[in-house]
Amino acid sequence: MIESVWLFINHYLLLPLIVLAGLLVLTPLLNRVIRKKLPGSQFGYWLSTYSYIIFILTYYQGKRFLTYPFISFGKFDVNLNLLIVSFFVLTLAYHLSKALTKQFLPTVYSRYHLDIGIQYTFNRLFHYVVMIIAVLVTTSMVGLDLSALTVFAGVLGVGIGFGLQNITSNFISGIILLFERPIKVGDRVIVEEIIGDVEKINMRATIIRSINNEHIIVPNSYFLEEHVVNRSYAAPEMRLVVPVGVSYDSDVDKVAALLMSVAEEESNKHDTILTTPEPFVNFVGFGESSLDFELFIWIQDPKQYIRIKSSVNFNIFRTFNQHAIEIPFPQRDLHVRSIDETLLNDFKKH
Questions:
Q1: Cβ neighbours for 169, distance < 8 A, ≥ 6 positions apart
Q2: Which element (helix H / strand E) includes 152?
């Protein structure tokens, strides 16, 4: 009995175990060498895994346990060899796609000066194409007849039509967003009064990181069906409007001059403020308790909108205080026409 077990181990398991032990020793060293050129990469571990899979498939080629069917779907049999090959091809395609999009494609993008939105679109499309090719290669390698799946495809089509309408709509919308690009990765957008930057456009939803560092998941179809403000669409320049009110006793010409001086000071402090178009003071009109003005300033980075507006407001307040320009606020005067004598007598007693 012991001799039979030893013969089995010696014939079937000894060499694979020796190879596995050798890979376990060499893999950390290999990955350390690869990380010197590709920081943070796990390519060494995956290279060892794929090498061992190839060895196992070669070493046990023709063995019964690899081709023994343990699950059958009609004429199609699922065996261990099919699962190993499918895992090998699909994961290899996935990691090659990720490696190419991180290491090779960025050099192409920098050569042609493509913006981050186009880069993201090409990365996603390249990944989808590679994975589709991997699936087709896998089906051909394992001998799967795609015509046998026509009935299943028909049932799946009915399911998509009735039960997966929302998912299908969002997926198609995501493809439209990648090609038409009404929004793209890196854009500053406003969705339902929430300001944020587009981080990812996935198959079903788009990830937006708000200025409060909150991540918002928005279905892709929303951007094609609802009103969305894209501050980065086409030209990134945008006009910053700073409203301010002064008392009716103020000199309007002096107010306009002070606002222009504030705009000039801010443009010297912040590179994102443009001098062309020039700042402009708009006399809006006559309010209930103030003369209403607007200071127009153009900025070239929409992501600096809040910071610049706050800085301008601080400067306006300081400047108006220095020059005795009153910024009024609503006031209400209470006139008491008569008081009940009983209440007045009670008040005097106390």
A1: 221
A2: helix 150-162
What is the residue-wise DSSP string for 220-288?
A: TTHHHHS--EETTSSS--EEEEEEEEE-TTS-HHHHHHHHHHHHHHHHHH-TTB-SSSPPEEEEEEE-S
pLDDT tens digits, 76-93: 677 777 788 888 888 888
pLDDT at 345 over 70: no
**Least confident range of 83-97, 146-160, 224-238, 297-311:** 146-160
Q: How far is 305 from 6, CA to CA, in rounded Å?
A: 75
* Distance from C-alpha of 341 to C-alpha of 350, rounded to nearest angstrom: 14
**For range 292-321, the mean pLDDT:** 92
Of residues 263 and 204, the one with the higher pLDDT is 263
β-bridge mates for residue 219, sequence order: 205
What span, in angstroms and rounded, lies between the C-alpha atoms of 202 and 229? 20
Tokens of 162: 């009735």
The tally of CA atoms less than 13 A away on the side-chain side of residue 56 is: 16
Residue whose tokens read 């015509």: 147
The amino acid that residue 21 corresponds to is: A
- Note the pTM of the prediction, 2 decimals: 0.51
Domains and CATH numbers, the chain: 2-143 (no CATH), 165-230 (2.30.30.60), 238-322 (3.30.70.100)
Number of alpha helices (DSSP H) and beta strands (DSSP E) in the chain: 13, 10
φ/ψ region of 40 (left if φ > 0, alpha if ψ in -120 to 50, else beta) reads left
Q: What tokens appear for 61 in the block? A: 């080629």
| 316 or 89, which is more confident | 316
Strands (E), 120-247: 188-191, 194-201, 205-210, 215-219, 229-230, 238-246
pLDDT tens profile 139-184: 777 666 655 556 556 655 666 566 567 777 888 888 888 888 888 8
